[in-house]
Amino acid sequence: MERLTERYGDLIRIKGCKTLYGNTERRSAPAANAIVRLAAYEDTLRTPDEIKVLIAASTAPLKLDELRGMDGEPVYCQSLVTGKGEWVICRVVECSNNWFLAFGGGVQAYGDKDTYGEKWLAYCRKPEEGTTHDQEVH
User: Fold this and answer.
1) What is the pTM (predicted TM-score) of this model?
2) pLDDT, average across residues 89-109
């Protein structure tokens, strides 16, 4: 993808233009802010389609092994029975040859790992209203 912006140290300009813009957004400067955001996007070196894939992956439910790696991290748990969800802190408890999940700070109780994907799901980001996921989570 060809860049539309160029960087000059802490400054940015649109290719072919002489006007230089600061590297941070400012109040009451929507055009300058759009250029700052465009340059930041171009710095990722990703195409729009690649960005869409990343966004979709970040809103998908965690796989069980990913959830196991979230010990001490906030996750959004959602009941597939009631449809209600909330942010909780995930705790992974290792016990002999087994492990289980516990969640702190929540009002609602979630099922154990054996009912994950059937009765409840966990996400890194809160899913948008009405979102459903049919992919395998185990």
Assistant:
1) 0.56
2) 77
